[in-house]
């Protein structure tokens, strides 16, 4: 019985798959034509490389206090100048790159790992369970922007790790809602009914048929959410609730710079530029992904 | 037959779409006349360019489409020479248009009355009160019950058939001389279709306007039209009055279309679909567009495009068979392609 | 419509209960005994017990929650741990400052965002469209606290046009409003543009043109009204984000608002004040979204009954 159901759903799936493969090819074709998206993508690749190998190539230490060279402006020696403790800002930005990217990636992965299954279960089974899960998501969404992360960090205490947890929790409802929406849309397709009628198990339907459909909007969301996560995390560190000194976290560096605006504006300038570059890269790549997935929007 | 005055004469109209640097010729040298007070049907499969031709008349072609040549003579004046302002004064006033999708062709955020009044205000300067009175009058004319109530309603409160009636009321607001109906019944239920066609016919007689009826449905043509232009791949292949066309179709494509339809007047063994498919717009055959699907096609047909030629009695045909150059079986020329049921 | 509003109000109840439970839990989820936290690290046991007694911390948690809820409804959040003054005395004066900042910034972002979005859509693919969209992308990708610092650097320190700190006089308002409103303006501009471009392709726009309507009216009368409907939802979400964003903006400009108070209280572990601030922002956000939802529904009713 199960055997036949499996085979039948396999044939059904093959019928479905042809247009899918074609649309995937179209997707790559459209993505390749989207120049901003490519710029975003290659910038991200470049930044990841820098974050891995950059720290080995910098000449100055990122954390050694050097009071004789404090608040020095940009020069050949210190490209981006030095901060109030005489540390080279360029070096600190390079060292902070991996922190920023890690916060972005990990919080999104963590949020997705919790949010996506919740959303799929909610959409697939519906009913009371759906109601319960979605009401809980509504509660999380009731804390706008940085507020939820702030509340969580106020409980957990300020550290980079807790910032990741806080931003991840903030990401959960977004993932859950998108996963739920796509699940509902897929569930409505006739072939899913057919497969179920043939006796396919819920697990099989979810993993073989629903997951692939949920994936593409989730990837777009994840990419764009990395940008938000980085901004939120930088904000928390700027408020002194995230990475603690002497960690070269960019938001925390901006906080340092705030006290020296009159004497040395460059301290607050460069870390901000670094944040903008990273966030911009994720945003334009995410935009491009979305356009490529949904060509109707682009027109 | 042809002494009648033509209200509209379209000559060699060319409309192209420019997509990623490539020109797609949607309308490729279309010529037809609309005699005054009569109905011209433009028939063709989807992609034949019939709707684009209609939109071109009012210059409603948006980016990336563009009218690249030809003449559209309306009462002796070429609309293509008009300025944007002049053409606006024609639109909805002298020439009106109704569309295929009544569900989406009305603005959801304005009431029925507001949308009818708009045309009256633009072209006749009617104020709110007078406009509303006229709108109610028009709704009554198109057979909408309790028009006083309907005039303040939003489109979502009306059914598809009702919305198409509103569209017609809107189009008739300024007593147009020419109404272009672009597949006005395609999206409607069969019973509603008949009602709408009947309404257009009645109103035409009442107001004395001319109509261009764009459709893919030969049934609609038989019921409503006086003249017919058959389009294939952006070109008119046959132009004739409706009786001639149904009785003695001459272009192989027209014959094929008719043969693929069921008929009630004679016994048919079977319906014969036209073989093959419409060529994609970027891969048009060099010669006659229909040649790859035509049972009579010769080398001449495949390599050279025939002209649209007068063959007498006001009929025009774009086919090599009816020319002196015809190099195929002379029998075809004598007997002509015929409808299956009348096979000798 | 009435049933929709009633249903929506009923939906609000579980959300508000959830929100209050979460806020209530803030203090209890924190590692350590709340009374101990309140009393300070080295307080004698007697003090700790007195606090437990006074705040009812020995009651079962559900009882404590209901007491908290009953007090919160009357805007009574207990006393601040720093000076024993009622929390409301701390929060209320600062609340108005924050509300002002958030409202002004929202107006700024709507105004700028709509204009930019419309111009961009109407002149699609021209230089103005492309530049507006690039600026919007930057606006979206900038940390607003950094934007604030840069504005201070340039307009206050270098040019001396505006005060770098404080809130109240006109030359103190401009920079915080720009700082807080820019990201919102960028989001609204992008949304308006894509919504306009979507609407302009609709059949009813062609109908309007076929009636002889002037292109200007086609855009501003027929298209805009429809295009704004989805933008309304974004504006509601933006207001919430701006309300929370005051935390950063007030820190940058040393504005004595609720955001600054929240940060100070978190750092001082003054939990009653933290609870009050978080709860107020969340409840306002939920209510604004309710209003937005209802007005969206009202506007959208004309498009589709469901």
Compact description:
Chain B is an alpha/beta fold. Helices cover 32% and strands 22% of the residues of chain B.
Secondary structure elements and pairings:
The complex is a heterotrimer of chains A (299), B (344) and C (306).
Chain A lengths: L1 H32 L1 H23 L31 H37 L1 H15 L4 H11 L3 H29 L1 H8 L4 H37 L11 H9 L7 H28 L1 H4 L1
Chain B lengths: L5 E14 L2 E14 L3 E5 L6 H8 L7 E10 L2 E2 L5 H7 L4 E4 L13 H13 L3 H14 L5 H4 L9 H13 L5 E5 L7 H18 L2 E6 L2 H7 L2 E6 L2 E7 H6 L4 H8 L39 H5 L5 E2 L5 E2 L12 H6 L9
Parallel strand pairs in B: 3-8, 3-9, 6-7, 7-8
Antiparallel strand pairs in B: 1-2, 1-4, 4-5, 9-10, 10-12, 11-12
Helix pairs in contact in B: 3-4, 3-6, 4-6, 6-7
Chain C lengths: L1 H28 L4 H6 L5 H11 L5 H13 L13 H36 L4 H15 L2 H15 L11 H31 L2 H8 L4 H38 L5 H10 L3 H30 L6
Q: Which regions of chain B are unreliable across 5 or more consecutive residues at pLDDT < 50?
A: none
* Count of distinct strands of chain B: 12
CATH architecture of the largest domain in chain B: 3-Layer(aba) Sandwich
Helix proportion range of chain B? 25-40%
Give the rounded overall mean pLDDT of chain C.
87
Structural class of chain C: mainly alpha
Can you offer a commentary on this structure?
The complex is a heterotrimer of chains A (299), B (344) and C (306). Chain A has one domain: MetI-like (MetI-like fold). Helix content of chain A is 78%, strand content 0%. Chain A has helices at residues 2-33, 35-57, 89-125, 127-141, 146-156, 160-188, 190-197, 202-238, 250-258, 266-293, 295-298. The longest helix of chain A has 37 residues, at 89-125. The termini of chain A are far apart. With 344 residues, chain B is of the alpha/beta class. Chain B has two domains: 1-94 and 178-191 and 211-344, Rossmann fold, CATH 3.40.50.300; 104-175, no CATH class. Helices cover 32% and strands 22% of the residues of chain B. Chain B has twelve helices and twelve strands. Chain B has an eight-stranded mixed beta sheet, with helices on both faces. In chain B, strands 2-1-4-5 form a four-stranded antiparallel beta sheet. Chain B is globular. The mean pLDDT of chain B is 86. By secondary structure, chain C is mainly α. In chain C, 79% of the residues lie in helices and 0% in strands. Chain C is built from twelve helices and no strands. In chain C, α6 (127-141) packs across α8, α7 (144-158) crosses α8 (170-200) and α10 (215-252) runs antiparallel to α12. The mean pLDDT of chain C is 87. The interface between A and C is large, with 43 and 49 residues.
């Amino acid at each position: 019985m199960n055997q036949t159901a499996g085979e039948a759903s396999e044939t059904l799936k093959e019928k479905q798959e042809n247009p899918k493969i074609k649309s995937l090819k179209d997707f790559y074709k459209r993505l390749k034509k989207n120049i901003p998206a490519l710029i975003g993508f290659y910038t991200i690749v470049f930044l990841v490389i820098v974050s891995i190998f950059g720290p080995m190539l910098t000449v100055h230490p990122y954390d050694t206090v050097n009071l004789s060279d404090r608040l020095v402006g940009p020069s050949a020696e210190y490209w981006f100048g030095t901060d109030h403790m005489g540390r080279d800002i360029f070096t600190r930005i390079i060292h902070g790159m991996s922190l920023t990217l890690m916060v972005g990636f990990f919080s999104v992965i963590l949020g997705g790992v919790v949010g996506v299954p919740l959303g799929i279960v909610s959409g697939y089974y519906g009913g009371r369970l759906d109601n319960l899960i979605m009401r809980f998501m509504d509660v999380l969404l009731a804390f706008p922007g940085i507020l939820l992360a702030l509340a969580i960090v106020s409980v957990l205490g300020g550290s980079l790790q807790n910032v990741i947890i806080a931003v991840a929790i903030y990401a959960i409802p977004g993932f859950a809602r998108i996963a739920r929406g796509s699940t509902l849309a897929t569930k409505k397709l006739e072939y899913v009914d057919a497969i179920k009628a043939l006796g396919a198990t819920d697990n099989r339907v979810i993993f073989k048929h629903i997951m692939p459909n949920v994936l593409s909007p989730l990837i777009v969301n994840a990419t764009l959410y990395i940008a938000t996560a980085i901004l939120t995390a930088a904000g928390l560190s700027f408020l002194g609730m995230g990475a603690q000194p002497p960690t070269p976290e960019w938001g925390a560096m901006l906080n340092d710079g705030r006290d020296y605006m009159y004497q040395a504006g460059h301290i607050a300038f460069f870390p901000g530029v670094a944040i903008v570059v990273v966030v911009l890269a994720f945003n334009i790549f995410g935009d491009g992904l979305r356009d490529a997935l949904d060509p109707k929007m682009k027109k | 037959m042809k002494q009648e005055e033509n209200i509209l004469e379209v000559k060699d109209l060319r409309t192209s779409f420019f997509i990623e640097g490539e020109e797609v010729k949607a309308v490729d040298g279309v010529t037809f006349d609309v005699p005054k007070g009569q109905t011209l049907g433009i028939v063709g499969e989807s992609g034949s360019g019939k709707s684009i031709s209609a939109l071109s008349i009012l210059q409603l072609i948006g980016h990336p489409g563009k009218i690249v040549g030809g003449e559209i003579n309306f009462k002796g004046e070429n609309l293509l020479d008009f300025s944007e302002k002049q053409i606006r004064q024609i639109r909805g006033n002298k020439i009106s248009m109704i569309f295929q999708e009544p569900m989406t062709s009305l603005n959801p955020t304005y009431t029925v009355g507001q949308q009818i009044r708009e045309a009256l205000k633009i072209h006749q300067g009617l104020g709110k009160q007078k406009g509303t009175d006229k709108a109610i009058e028009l709704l009554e004319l198109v057979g909408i019950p309790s028009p006083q109530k309907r005039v303040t309603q939003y489109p979502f409160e009306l059914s598809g058939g009702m919305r198409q009636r509103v569209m017609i009321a809107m189009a008739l607001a300024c007593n147009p001389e020419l109404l272009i109906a672009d597949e006005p019944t395609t999206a409607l239920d069969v019973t509603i279709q008949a009602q709408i066609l009947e309404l257009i016919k009645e109103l035409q007689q009442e107001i004395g306007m001319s109509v261009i009826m764009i459709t893919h449905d030969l049934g609609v043509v038989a019921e409503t039209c006086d003249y017919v232009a058959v389009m294939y791949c952006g070109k008119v292949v046959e132009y004739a009055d409706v009786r001639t066309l149904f009785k003695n179709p001459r272009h192989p494509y027209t014959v094929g279309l008719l043969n693929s339809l069921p008929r009630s007047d004679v016994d048919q063994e079977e319906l014969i679909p036209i073989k093959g498919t419409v060529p994609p717009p970027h891969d048009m055959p060099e010669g006659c567009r229909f040649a790859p699907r035509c049972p009579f096609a010769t080398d001449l047909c495949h390599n050279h495009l025939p002209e649209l030629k007068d063959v007498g009695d006001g009929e025009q045909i774009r086919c090599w068979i009816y020319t002196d150059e015809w190099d195929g079986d002379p029998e075809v020329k004598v007997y002509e392609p015929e409808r299956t049921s009348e096979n000798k | 419509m009435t049933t929709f509003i009633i249903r929506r109000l009923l939906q609000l109840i579980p959300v508000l209960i959830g929100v209050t439970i979460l806020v209530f839990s803030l203090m209890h989820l924190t590692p350590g005994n709340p009374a101990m936290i309140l009393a300070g690290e080295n307080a004698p046991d007697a003090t700790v017990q007195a606090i437990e007694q006074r705040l009812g911390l020995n009651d079962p948690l559900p009882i404590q929650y209901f007491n908290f809820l009953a007090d919160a409804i009357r805007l009574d959040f207990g006393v601040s741990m720093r000076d024993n003054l009622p929390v409301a005395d701390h929060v209320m004066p600062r609340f108005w400052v924050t509300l002002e900042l958030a409202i002004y910034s929202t107006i700024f972002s709507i105004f700028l965002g709509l204009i930019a979005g419309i111009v961009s859509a109407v002149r699609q693919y021209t230089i103005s469209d492309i530049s507006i969209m690039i600026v919007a992308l930057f606006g979206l990708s900038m940390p607003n606290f950094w934007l604030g610092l840069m504005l201070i650097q340039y307009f206050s320190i270098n040019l001396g046009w505006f005060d770098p700190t404080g809130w109240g006089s006109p030359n103190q308002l401009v920079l915080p409003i720009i700082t807080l409103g820019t990201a919102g303006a960028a989001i609204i501009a992008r949304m308006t543009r894509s919504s306009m471009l979507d609407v302009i392709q609709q059949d009813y726009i062609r109908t309007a043109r076929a009636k002889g309507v002037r292109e200007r009216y086609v855009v501003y009368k027929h298209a805009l009204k429809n295009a704004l409907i989805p933008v309304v939802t974004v504006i509601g979400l933006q207001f919430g984000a701006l309300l929370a964003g005051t935390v950063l903006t007030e820190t940058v400009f040393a504005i004595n608002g609720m955001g600054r108070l929240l940060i100070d209280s978190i750092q001082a572990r003054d939990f009653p004040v933290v609870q009050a601030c978080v709860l107020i922002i969340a409840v306002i956000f939920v209510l604004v979204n309710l209003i937005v939802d209802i007005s969206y529904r009202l506007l959208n009713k004309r498009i589709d009954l469901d």
